[in-house]
Specification:
The chain is mainly α. The protein has 3 domains: 305 residues, no CATH class; 114 residues, no CATH class; 110 residues. The strands form 2 sheets. The chain has a 6-stranded mixed sheet. A two-stranded antiparallel ribbon has the order 1-2. Helix 8 packs parallel to helix 11 and helix 15 packs across helix 16. It is globular and about 80 Å long. The N and C termini lie far apart (87 Å). The relative contact order is 0.11. The model has no long low-confidence stretch (mean pLDDT 90).
C-alpha cells in the first residue's frame, strides 16, 4: 500500500518568522535568567565552586571542592564555566551563561533531528514542544551537565540519521557521531556514548534491514577520535592519583547506573514518583499524546509499514534512557537527554496531513486555560487568608528532590509565590484561550505559536520563584557575612553533608569543615587521604568552640542538641541566617 507523506518538507514564510522570533525570545529569557538566583546548594555549588577554585589556581586539570579533588564528573562543564568567568568575572551570570548556551545548542540539535526525521516543520514544532515543557524550564536553570550531554547525544542521533540518508557519506557521519559521543562523555560520563549505541542496537534488533547500515559504527577512525577525546584527561588524573580510574568507572559510573555507589551520594527518587512526574515535567506537550496516537492510527490505515527507521530510533532512544534511569540512582532529571525524542513524537499532530477532529487540539488548550483560571483563583483565595496559614519548613536534608522540595514547605511558606501563581495563571488563561480559539478555527500553526509564547511568562515566573526561595537552598548570605566580618583565622564548620552546603564552595573565602559526615564519603578522602582533616566529630567541634574563633552552621532545629555537646546554658543568638539554617559565632565584636 502506498504511504501518504507523513510530514511537509518546508516551512511557510509565516512559520519561519515565528521560529526566528520565538528562538530570539527564548535566547533572551535564558540569558537574562543567568543573573538570578544566587548559586544553589547541591549541583550548582559543586560545579560553580569547582570552576572558581580551578580558575583561582589556574589549574585546568583537577576539579576541586573546598580544595579536595572532585572526581565524580569529567571536566568539560568546568572548563566552559572557567572560560565564562575569565570573561565576565566570578559571579552568578558567568557561572550560568554556559548552561544557557548549551540549552540553546540542545534546542538547535533537536531542530536538526526533527528536520531530518520529517522536515523543518517537525523540527520547529518539536523544538517548541520541548522548550515549553515545565521540566525543561526548571532543570535548564540549574547548573548541571545534563543540557550539555543532551546537546551532544541529540547531535549523535542527528549524525546517525544523516548517515542513513547520505550513505555515500556515512563514514563521515559515523565519525562525527563518535566525536559527539566523546564530547558528551566528557561532560558527564560514558552513558553519553552507551545510550546512543544502545538505541542503535535496539533499532537494529527491530529494524532488520538496517543491520548492515549499523556496521558502519565500527569505524576505526571514529572510535580512535572518541578515545582521543576521552582518554587524555583520565590518564592524566590517573598518573597523578593512582586508582582514580578504577573507582571512577566502577564506583561512580557503574555504581550510579545500578544504584550501588558506595557510600550512596544522594537519596533515590521513588520509582513511582519518578515515572508519574514525567507526565508533569513534560507538560503541556503530554496533553497532545491522544492527538499523536490518533495521527498514528490514521497513518497505519494508509501505510503497511508506518514506523520508519527514524521513528524506531527516536523510540529506542527514549526507551533505553528511561528504562536504565529507572534502574539507576534515580534523580528527577536523569532522562532529560532524551526529552527531545518525546517532543518530536508529540509534535506529529501539528503538521501531519491527516484529518482528525479539532477537539484533539482544542480540548487541551481549554484545559490549559482552565488550569490558568484555577491558578488565578487559588492565588487570590490563598492570598486572602495568608495570615491564617501555618508556616513550617523542613530541614534541607529533607528537601533534596523536586517532589520533596515542594512538600517541604507548608502552604503558608509559599505565600511569596501567590503573586507569581496569579501571573502564571493569567498567562495560561489568556494564552490557552487564544490557542483554543485558533485551533478550533484550524489555525494550528498560530495556536502552537500562542502556546509557546504563553509559556514564556511561567518561565520568567519560575526564575523569579527561584530567587524568592533562594535563602532556603543556598548559604550565600551566610558565606558573605563570614567573608565580610569573621576574623581571618576563624574556622567554619557545617553540620551536614558537603553537597547540601555546596554554595559555600562558590561564596566562602576559606575552607569549610564538616561534622556528622563519614570521612569516606568522597574518593579523595577515602582512598587518597586528601582533606581528611576537614572532617570533624562533635567533640572536636566542642573543643574548637572553646579554643578560638569559630562559626558553626547548622539547622536551627539542632541547636538544642549542640547546646548539650558544647555546654551552652542558652544558644547564642544567630549571627546569620539562611532559611532554616543559622550561623553561630563564639566571639563578640
Amino acid at each position: 500500500m502506498m504511504c501518504a507523506p507523513m510530514y511537509p518538507h518546508v516551512l511557510r514564510p509565516l512559520e519561519r518568522r515565528q521560529a526566528l522570533f520565538l528562538f530570539a525570545v527564548l535566547a533572551f529569557i535564558l540569558v537574562i535568567g543567568c543573573f538570578h538566583p544566587v548559586i544553589y546548594d547541591e549541583t550548582e555549588g559543586q560545579y560553580a565552586g569547582a570552576a572558581r577554585e580551578m580558575l583561582e589556581r589556574n589549574d585546568w586539570l583537577v576539579p576541586t571542592n573546598n580544595g579536595v579533588p572532585r572526581f565524580q564528573k569529567p571536566p568539560v562543564v568546568y572548563w566552559c564555566m572557567m572560560a565564562s568567568m575569565k570573561v565576565f568575572g566570578v559571579n552568578e551570570f558567568a557561572a550560568r551563561l554556559p548552561l544557557a548556551l548549551a540549552t540553546l545548542g540542545w534546542l538547535a540539535a533537536v531542530y536538526l533531528v526533527g528536520k531530518r526525521v520529517g522536515g523543518p516543520a517537525l523540527g520547529l514544532y518539536g523544538t517548541m514542544m520541548l522548550a515549553s515543557a515545565i521540566g525543561f524550564m526548571v532543570f535548564t536553570h540549574i547548573i548541571m551537565p545534563e543540557p550539555f550531554m543532551a546537546m551532544f547525544i541529540t547531535l549523535t542521533i542527528w549524525a546517525f540519521l544523516r548517515a542513513k540518508w547520505q550513505p555515500e557519506r556515512a563514514k563521515f557521519w559515523f565519525f562525527l557521531a563518535w566525536v559527539f559521543m566523546g564530547m558528551g562523555s566528557m561532560c558527564k560520563g560514558l552513558h553519553a556514548a552507551l545510550w546512543p549505541l544502545a538505541a542503535a542496537g535496539l533499532t537494529a534488533l527491530f529494524f532488520r534491514e538496517t543491520r548492515g547500515f549499523w556496521k558502519g559504527l565500527g569505524s576505526l577512525p571514529g572510535i580512535t577520535a572518541f578515545l582521543a577525546i576521552l582518554l587524555p584527561w583520565y590518564f592524566a588524573i590517573e598518573a597523578r592519583y593512582p586508582g582514580f580510574i578504577l573507582d571512577h568507572f566502577v564506583n561512580e559510573q557503574i555504581g550510579h547506573a545500578i544504584d550501588k555507589r558506595w557510600p550512596p551520594s544522594s537519596n533515590q527518587v521513588e520509582l513511582l514518583v519518578f515515572i508519574v512526574q514525567h507526565f508533569f515535567l513534560l507538560m503541556p506537550a503530554m496533553m497532545f499524546l491522544p492527538a499523536a496516537l490518533a495521527i498514528w492510527r490514521q497513518h497505519r490505515k494508509t501505510c503497511s509499514e508506518p514506523f520508519s527507521f527514524a521513528h524506531h530510533l527516536l523510540l529506542a532512544w527514549f526507551a533505553v534512557t528511561f528504562v536504565t534511569s529507572c534502574l539507576s540512582a534515580r534523580q528527577d532529571y536523569y532522562t532529560m537527554s532524551a526529552w527531545g525524542a518525546v517532543a518530536l513524537l508529540l509534535a506529529t499532530p501539528w503538521i501531519a496531513p491527516y484529518r482528525i477532529t479539532r477537539w484533539f487540539f482544542t480540548i487541551p488548550f481549554v484545559l490549559i486555560a482552565l488550569a490558568g483560571a484555577f491558578g488565578v483563583g487559588a492565588a487570590l483565595w490563598l492570598g486572602s487568608m495568608e495570615d491564617d496559614l501555618q508556616v513550617s519548613i523542613l530541614p534541607i536534608v529533607e528537601r533534596d528532590h523536586l517532589w520533596t522540595a515542594l512538600q517541604g514547605f507548608s502552604l503558608g511558606a509559599w505565600k511569596d509565590f501567590f503573586p507569581l501563581l496569579k501571573n502564571t495563571g493569567l498567562s495560561l488563561m489568556i494564552g490557552g484561550g487564544l490557542a483554543a480559539f485558533l485551533s478550533f478555527r484550524r489555525k494550528l500553526n498560530l495556536a502552537g505559536a500562542a502556546l509557546a509564547a504563553t509559556m514564556g511568562v511561567p518561565f520568567l515566573m519560575m526564575v523569579q520563584g527561584f530567587s524568592v526561595k533562594e535563602e532556603f537552598f543556598s548559604l550565600e548570605h551566610t558565606a558573605k557575612k563570614i567573608a565580610a566580618s569573621a576574623p581571618a583565622e576563624a574556622r567554619v564548620v557545617y553540620d551536614g553533608y558537603p553537597n547540601l552546603a555546596s554554595s559555600l564552595f562558590f561564596y566562602l573565602d576559606r575552607p569549610a569543615h564538616w561534622v556528622n559526615v563519614p570521612v569516606d564519603y568522597e574518593y579523595a578522602t577515602r582512598s587518597l587521604s586528601i582533606g581528611r582533616s576537614l572532617y570533624l566529630d562533635e567533640q572536636a567541634v566542642a573543643d574548637a568552640w572553646r579554643q578560638g574563633p569559630l562559626v558553626l552552621i547548622a539547622e536551627e532545629s539542632t541547636l538544642e542538641h549542640w547546646g548539650r555537646i558544647i555546654g551552652w546554658e542558652a544558644p547564642p543568638e544567630p549571627w546569620a541566617r539562611s532559611g532554616t539554617r543559622v550561623a553561630l559565632r563564639n566571639w563578640v565584636d
